[in-house]
Amino acid sequence: MSIDFELTAEQKKLKYGMREFAQEVVRPAAERADALTDPQEAFLAMKPAFEQASAMGLPTSFLPKKYGGGGLSNVDFMIAAEELCAVDPGFPTIVLVNGLALMPLTWFGSEQQCEKWIGQATSSGRTDYLAGWVVSERGGTANFDHPSPTAGIQLVADHDKANGEYVLNGEKHWPCNAGGWDLQGADVNLCIVRTDRTKGGKEGLSAILVERGTPGIEYEVIDKIGHRTCQNVTMTFRDVRVPEENLFAHGDGDLVINRNFTWSGSVASIAAVGVARGAYQFALNWARTFTGGGARPIINHQAVGNLLTEIAAKIEAARYMCWKAAHYMDMYDSEGQALGAMNKTFCGDLMQSVVFDCMRIVGVNAVDKKFPMEKYYRESLIFPLYDAGNLAMQRRKAWGVMADAEFSPDTFVDCDPLQFKKSMEGYGVMAEVG
Ligand SMILES: Cc1cc2nc3c(=O)[nH]c(=O)nc-3n(C[C@H](O)[C@H](O)[C@H](O)COP(=O)(O)OP(=O)(O)OC[C@H]3O[C@@H](n4cnc5c(N)ncnc54)[C@H](O)[C@@H]3O)c2cc1C
User: Fold this and answer.
1) Ligand 1, pocket-test mutation among 141, 432, 433, most atoms within 8 A of CB
2) For ligand 1, what atom is nearest to the CA of residue 132?
3) CA of 94 to the centre of ligand 1 (A)
4) Beta bridge partners of 219
5) Based on the domain organization, do 144 and 206 belong to the same domain?
6) The Acyl-CoA oxidase/dehydrogenase middle domain covers which part of the protein (predicted)?
7) Ligand 1: which residue has its CA nearest to atom 13?
8) Nearest to 248 by CA among 205, 187, 203
9) From CA 380, how far away is CA 51, in angstroms rounded?
10) Is residue 4 assigned to a domain?
11) Gap from CA of 138 to ligand 1 centroid (Å)
């Protein structure tokens, strides 16, 4: 019997160590930050907690040991992330995005690029090192694999061969961490660019690393209703010159997007579970203690008891799906595009409604800002929308895999490998250009 859901002694240590860090360090900082009206100040208020997390090795924990990272498995990262998210999901998003910026090098970069850029993150000796993942655009992210060069990604990188550089022009909207602590840029930003103006999304995209201090970039912070402790920005690029050796995945930027949002999909899923668990813990305690003027606590009402069992079952099921997806991705170096996408859509959508069910248990007091439920609700609204929105990007990815003859309903339960291919992309794009 090889199926085993029991945490090892090390995993329990990780879980409870992370819970203590979340409650003692992240919670007070996040409560202060969430209440600040200026979004950049909110992000900055998390810097001391981030520095403590860095001293523990958290922002580089999932990077390969070979390049100085912690070599943490996806499954172990799930266990740690749930604990942080049960307190505040914005803070671990800062940590996660460091990974989204650097993990693609391990899949698509050269050995030299991995040593240089991942090495810089793991051995800088600094505790405030930040990396950004820069893909989303105002004019549409979900259509990044559209066959027209004028749809999808429009940040253009023209090759100036004579000077050995790429010249970037355009705009990005929503990247996390990318502005850095001082709005002068993260230490490095991994940008998805169009390197061929004549080709569509499956053929014309690449990835390029833009170092802090590169002239020609402006950053403007976005104010948002949830995940206020992480930073999102609009980035404007005007004739930004980047050395050509910083480019990788030439013509395969689409594959970088799909694999990266697969790796992060399970983390976003467990983040949704973490937030729902936090809301459930509060609602359960409320139901056991609040009488509503009656003789006994409201948990004794059948309606309340029934709903609580449904809430608990959904959270348990969602968590185990996250562990399964993470386990599969540990087996195949994060090639699990359909399972990762199904994990993200299932958990993101379901946990959002579970948080509302928890509010129904608490009743009207759930909207009183002195209780944590209103924050859990604002946080839960983000899950179906971010990290490659559920409605199009993630579902289209799973759909494309399922349409392939190599996919079978037994693929994931049998833990069989399944290589993601360009032919699985482009499902659901409308080929004509408006
Ligand atoms: C907290 C947070 C953190 C984030 N971090 C980052 C980050 O680090 N880096 C980054 O680059 N981005 C980041 N984002 C942005 C985010 O990941 C994506 O931009 C977003 O998930 C894509 O949104 P969308 O699906 O609404 O895309 P859009 O392209 O804006 O689509 C808008 C609508 O059109 C629909 N649609 C478009 N095309 C199709 C189609 N072909 N078929 C069906 N429907 C379609 C979509 O489903 C959606 O309903 C972050 C966002 C948030 C809130």
Assistant:
1) 141
2) 8
3) 18
4) 235
5) yes
6) 148-240
7) 175
8) 205
9) 26
10) no
11) 9
E strand spans, 179-248: 188-194, 205-211, 217-221, 232-243, 247-248
pLDDT tens track for 13-67? 999 999 999 999 999 999 999 999 999 999 999 999 999 999 999 999 999 999 9
Query: Which atom of ligand 1 is least distant from the CA of 388?
Result: 21
pLDDT at residue 136, as a whole number: 97
Residue where a domain stops, chosen among 123, 139, 162? 123
CATH number at residue 203: 2.40.110.10
Domain boundary among the residues 123, 140, 160 is at 123
Q: Which domain holds residue 115?
A: 9-123
- Pocket-forming residues, ligand 1, beta carbon under 6 Å: 93, 97, 133-136, 140-143, 174-176, 227, 230, 232, 382, 385-389, 391-393, 428-429
Ligand 1 centre distance from Cα of residue 139 (Å): 10
Cα distances (angstroms) measured from residue 212 to each of 185, 209, 286:
5, 10, 48
E strand intervals along 250-316: none
pLDDT at 124: 86
Residues 415 and 398 in one domain: yes
The answer to whether 187 and 131 are in contact (CB under 8 A) is: yes
404 and 287, same structural domain?
yes
